[in-house]
Amino acid sequence: MKKRYPLGNYGLGWVLLALFLVSWALQTWTGWRKFEAEQAVQQQSAEFFGADGYVWDWAQATFENWQSEFLQLLAMAVFTSFLIYKGSAESRETEDETLDRLERIERRLDSLVPSSVPRESAPREETRS
Asked: What is the rounded distance in angstroms from the CA atom of residue 35 to the CA atom of residue 53?
């Protein structure tokens, strides 16, 4: 039986989109309230559009947030897909590295087992935990 999710197969995307839109709306609203207060102190009317309108402060705040947050996240995602620290938990061995490792293990085993006894019939050592 196929498991059904309340938001479909793209639930994570929908939730992240909703959180993004809510936070963007809150940034817009709180920024507008601050802009209104600053304009009132200067005894000017608060306008959304125009040369001195709120839209310019809003755009600056939006792009600063996108630059600092989204570009960092994008860079981290892109860079980690190409530039993995070798030996870390996230890095994977290539097929060649795996084969090299197996060959080293086999050579070591061959050096431990006398050459007159075939490896398959050699007695195994007990491993202790």
From this structure: 9
